[in-house]
Amino acid sequence: MCLKFVTGATNMAKMVYLLEDVIKGMLDYFKALHPMEGILLLRGRVKKDAIYVEQLILPPNSIQGEGFSSFSPYALPLDLSIVGLAHSHPNGVLKPSIEDLNNFYGRLMVIATYPYRSEEDIGVFDREGACVRFKLI
Length: 137
Ligand SMILES: [Zn+2]
Prior knowledge:
It is built from 2 helices and 9 strands; from the N terminus they run βαβββββαβββ. The chain has helices spanning about 20-35, 100; strands spanning about 15-20, 40-45, 50-55, 65, 70, 80-90, 110-115, 120-125, 135. The model has no long low-confidence stretch (mean pLDDT about 85). It binds zinc ion.
């Protein structure tokens, strides 16, 4: 799945820890929206080389639709605990699109793909689109 991993010097975290509940909630939410694309904010903590994703938040004023999802970052409260975004790819492609990278928000991007079964349908990416290793906790 992920052929290109983050290796060299980068300001990205080297490991992302996702709470199991977060993964489950995310997959359930995206599954319910399918075939529409969904988007969620990720709240968590940054610690040295690692990011802990602990909570999902529905973005305000989000637009959910077929093949696109967006929201205005300006509508967000200034919240430093937002570590990134998660969105779904109903087409099953586990790779950020150019648009995704242009709209990168926070420190990491999580993509969940159809059929949203487990963490195998999830990828974590940095702003260059490289895969970041993640673990469930
Ligand atoms: Zn995307």
